[in-house]
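INPUT
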Amino acid sequence: MAMLKDVKILDLTRLLPGPYCTWILSKLGADVIKVENPNMGDYSRGSPLYELINVGKKSLTLNLKKNSGKKILLDLVSQSDVLVEGFRPGVIDKLGLGYDVLKEHNKRIIVCSISGYGQTGPYRDIAGHDINYISISGLLGINRTSESPMLPALQIGDLGGGFGALSILANLYRREIDGEGEYIDVSMTDVVGSLFNIAYQGLLAETFSGGLLPCCNIYKTKDEKFVSIGAIEAKFWNNFCISIGRDDLIKAQYDSSAMEEIKRIFSEKTREEWIKMFKEVDATLTPVYSPEEVFSDPQVMSRKVFDQGKKLLNFPVKFLRISTKDDRKAPNLGENTSEILKGLGYGEDEIKNLRIEKVV
Amino acid sequence: MAMLKDVKILDLTRLLPGPYCTWILSKLGADVIKVENPNMGDYSRGSPLYELINVGKKSLTLNLKKNSGKKILLDLVSQSDVLVEGFRPGVIDKLGLGYDVLKEHNKRIIVCSISGYGQTGPYRDIAGHDINYISISGLLGINRTSESPMLPALQIGDLGGGFGALSILANLYRREIDGEGEYIDVSMTDVVGSLFNIAYQGLLAETFSGGLLPCCNIYKTKDEKFVSIGAIEAKFWNNFCISIGRDDLIKAQYDSSAMEEIKRIFSEKTREEWIKMFKEVDATLTPVYSPEEVFSDPQVMSRKVFDQGKKLLNFPVKFLRISTKDDRKAPNLGENTSEILKGLGYGEDEIKNLRIEKVV
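OUTPUT
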């Protein structure tokens, strides 16, 4: 069986943070229904990202400002385990669909709100995006060159939505034991703040300071590519120095004054020559791949990190007994509206009327 | 009740990836025992990072190479829900403590292995660190200046251990239903590969391309500090342009040829002046904080992201009914050895002998 077999999730979110949260749960076997505005569904539709994190979900269009739309949502809530929403704090309450209302319809419902700054505090009503959340939580300030903070390649704030999935899982487990629902308040700024402090405390501790040390760094090769080395332990650095015939550098493992010499050494061979030379040596030397190279790396292919061809994402963790294989597609806007409404007992004519009234 | 009340976890890991995984579970209420080598426990002890991610755990020293040490571990396994290990693939099997052996002692045990490249594939036996996993999985290749890939501030590979916690939670839930244990294989490279592809597909889609656009960027202020703006939506950018009296720039939201002019505008006021000016305007303008500033931000303080003073980490998600507050400390090496052995029925003399024989 799947891990989340028969777990029903209503997803009122769009773009990256909420859909990433429910992507995780969907891959673990939950049934996820995207509840989308009939006029404008998830804005990310059309981008490759949409396909990536919406595979396997269903789409129901629903106008939550109309009473008939609210009624349908509440009918679904009474049959669901989890509702995830990503509106600005307070919006769902104004719609008359706050946690207090939802739990009247289903006392076991687990509601997860994902927002930029959280449901409380002085910034709760302020709009923002990933770049803002990582500014406030300190990550952007430490992700920098000598001149300027630099936007990380990863939208780590948005991906903080993953902590929503983790918190939902913890509460699904607990609910099996005590039968109670819960309200979960995920602030992307809080999540990044937590990650920031791990990085920052690591930077403060000399032993973890990467980046500026000969033994843990990125080096340019003869062919203008790059290799990385992570030889934090003496044995790996010794192996490296001995292999290049430079035992004299063993003592320079953490000595940044040796950096220029080591840069020079790396510039003498191509990336491929370096990788070939260290294929059988335990010295933590790896190629720094350009994006397209990743997809053909033998380990990445062997582990099926990506669904080759479509470049979709498989669930990034493997289980011995349980498969997370998933060949489903991302839904078109409203693709499953009729099917879901029929499941609630609506007839063809009623559904037609709901369409005419622009409820669905 | 805590979410993971009475969930017992044995943690055979060290440094960041495994301890981060079990930190999450500990914060959610699980009992975590660090099982450490008596001669050399978790190497990170002494660094601020150790305190941060080991609060609330217990420490048992145990020599797993001795039969009497293995016996104690197996006795604990029979009473535990989860075992997490982070040795190089194959090591735990060589110790005679692989999943097959563990499940003979407890068929409900959930075992999670966290490794750099995974338990399978051509790189399984290769040593590495965070820098290597992010090289292979593509993240380092896209986290770059025009000159070179740049090590991200966040050890995102190591933090991939968090997916171990998520997978353990999913299996704890499932186990309540089907009663079966599971073996979980977390590869940090796989996890980062998955995150990389989300970032990469986002980069490929114009609408998500941050960093190079006037409306979503980092700007230097008059006092050599920085602000960030995330005005991806027209309304926020319009608010920005109107507020600075430059309606002519409204059309330049996504026009990088306007960048120099916007840089010049930002250089005319201090960071504080900018923030004050936009305090009441919905334009997604935020200060880029230096690390120490984060701890005194009003939102961060209001949300109690950090345990102020000690700068420890609170669990980054809030729950309505359930508290994750935790005032416990990180354990000294072997601090709980006697207590744990007594719980297994060992007497004072037996414990003394185990110490003399260097088993614990």
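end of record. Chain A touches chain B through 132 residues (CB under 8 Å).
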